[in-house]
Amino acid sequence: MSAVMQRQESVPSLALDEQELIDVLRSSLYPGAADASIKMVIGYCQATGLDPMQKPVHIVPMKVSTGQKDQYGNDIKANRDVVMPGIGLYRINASRTGQYAGVSEPEYGPTRALEFQKEVWVDGPTGKRQKTFIQTSIEYPEWCRVTVDKLVDGQICHFTATEYWLENYAEKGDSGAPNTMWAKRPRGQIAKCAEAQALRKAFPEVGSAPTAEEMEGKAMETVRDISPQPAAKQEPEAKKAFDQDKFEEKIPAWQAGVDEGKATPGSLISFLQTKYTLTDAQIDRINRMAPIEGEAE
User: Which of 13, 87, 123, 288 would suit a FRET pair with 221, their CA atoms being 20 to 30 Å apart?
Assistant: First the structure.
């Protein structure tokens, strides 16, 4: 029996009924996630023998290229949920090798200041709240360095990664301002990015995919979704019935139009049916306005 199968059998949550597990995960770790997205998490965990209740992976909304172009030649993007490993999963996979010997405390570079326009809501002249921008700034470490230790042939080897804050932080829109997480934890976020890179250097087998922490708030522009996406079903707008009293009021005007050659019964019916549902009796009444051969029938 493979190691993955052995680990999978030892994970109690994977023994639950699938729908029951989906409901549990949605109510605890992935609130508001769609069934299909949670199923991807479960499938990932089943394939790797991980416990989904430990949240080793994250559901990250991404803008994915559809491979199609709009009328201006720009790539058409679609919102998709992407399952991505967390920094915790990198640590788990490194530990499973039996060669993981620990990680250093983050070392930070000099403190810098990032100035940007911050969006705020203020009271307008009429007392109504309105959006405006103010000049503000945050402090951040220029870089972060983390070292992962690995046991190789009885010797401790060091794998160091240095990541620069400006090359990693996620912007909020196109303003240059950091998103909420990077503004709140400028050191914590860059430390996770540096650790993930160091783990990839020391343990290439943990995977080359970026972690959810590294992709926090970013658009995955390079990913292309080639799976066929069903076209959204457009429900036809329900048409209301033509009120009979109103119908009778319109008869003289319609009749005059037909008599003057401005319309035919067929054109009247086609026009009215774009907005209303006509009864058979109403259609027959309009057809009898002009006894043109072949028109009434």
Answer: 87
